[in-house]
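Hi L.,

You mentioned the student needs an example of a multi-chain input paired with its predicted structure. This one should do, with 552 residues in total across all chains.
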Amino acid sequence: MKNISINWKDRIIPVIFIIITLLFLTLFLVLPLAAIFVEAFRKGVEGYCASFRDPYAWSSIRLTLVTAAIAVPINVVFGVVAAWCIAKFEFRGKNILITLIDLPFAVSPVIAGLIFVLAFGRQTTFGGWLIDHDIKIIFAVPGIVLATIFVTFPFVARELIPLMQEQGILEEEAAVSLGANGWDVFWKITLPNIKWGLLYGIILCNARAMGEFGAVSVVSGHIRGETNTMPLYIETLHAGYESVAAFSIATLLAALALVTLIAKTIVEWKVKRERMVDNS
Amino acid sequence: MKKHSVLPGFGLTFGITLAYLSLIVLLPLSLIVLNTASMSFADFLKAIGSKQVIASYKLTFGASLLAATINGIFGFIVAWTLIRYKFPGKRIIDAIVDMPFAMPTAVSGIALTAICAKNGWVGSLLVPFGIKIAYTQLGVLVALIFIGLPFVVRTLQPTLEDLDKEVEEAAASLGATKFQTFWYVIVPSVLPALMTGFTLAFARALGEYGSVVFISGNLPMKTEITPLLIVMKLEQYDYAGATAIAMVMLIASFVLMFFINLSQWYARRFSN
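Structure written out for the whole complex:
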């Protein structure tokens, strides 16, 4: 009799845990995701398509693409350089450097926007000088790009540092002692080893660059057709009770988020498999 | 400064890293400190201590703390379920946990508002009970739970995976009850990770803007979060006021970052 009751207890706890997990995640993650698409198609396919006949929608899409096209490559180069420095060498103050690279994650996006207003806004001497010379940074595209660079700054370095530390420097040292130069070592040995981690870092960096709201909102000035990125235009539409149009544009960003999640799952699977091959 | 290595490129990469870091992150951030230092202390206190600002601290800190606690509990259950149990669809569930990271905050914001509004899927169910989520403090809490969940789950998962099942079996074979095993064996070994996850979720919630401002409705003194006040001050061209509040938030973030590093250091020492 006792045995049976233990079995019953052993089974009931997993079932309760699984049910709580499914309910909680459905409520907080699945429902909002579904709501985006349902709201976007509230007036049917015709209503959805009509949202994209708006020229302001297209200019916001273009600005988002341009911003990401500048911010992401810059941060990819920086991320690889920083990861090489931190993972391949031992030096004093390394932990402080890692913490400083993570800083943009610890800072509110609103503050990320504010600091560029403090640096280039028209209330400062420098900002006044810039405006006198017809260089617009705040309430213009350069400010949006700068704020985006700031918030996406750690992504690539963060993905690469642990990966490169784990791989060590034995292979690179062997190549150097056989006479290879630094570039060859990087392109032929390091890069193939980190390609999946790098790809994932780029995807994350890009997702955040295209989706950033708070930081960009502070520096943009929300000028329709000029400084509205997709997330900002969604806000403009939502505030104007154009719900279908707001959710239609949101579906594009939601699709980007889903692609990011799928890419993450694939990359994790690849890394796991390569590790298993290495170990066997 | 650096130990000898045969690999090339230390000077170059270190120099670029430091220069870029200073230019993009450190220099701009230092402007907040500099601008605050140029204010008189009385002005600073006035800016950070007005009634409206104090109300926003209460809401932001209170809701963030509560959201991180709720995430601590449910995040543990989710992480435990994903590591220990097998069920259909587990892989998809595991992948979707990262959604709040991947989804732009403005999109999450309007989606949460849509389901929590009076005529929304969840909001309409609560109307008979007289509970309102959208445009109340409860809405702020919902958004902060959403945004913080992945931090707790993703910090706990590796620790739970490393947890040796044999230790639990040993405890059970020595006569420990399920509860005793949980309380004396599992909880102490996951506590550092749980604390780290909790603090990360709390820190993120403090600074969160995009997902909150849609669902909160931004009612003066009631549902205004602190980051929103910074934006409002800027819109009124009150740069000093905005900077002073930002300084307070920056200090809060740095204190939390210190705690995160401390708890990770403690976790490493503990596991060794």
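You could point out the following to them. The CA atoms of residues 32 and 243 of chain B lie 6 Å apart. Chain B has a mean pLDDT of 92.

Best wishes,
N.
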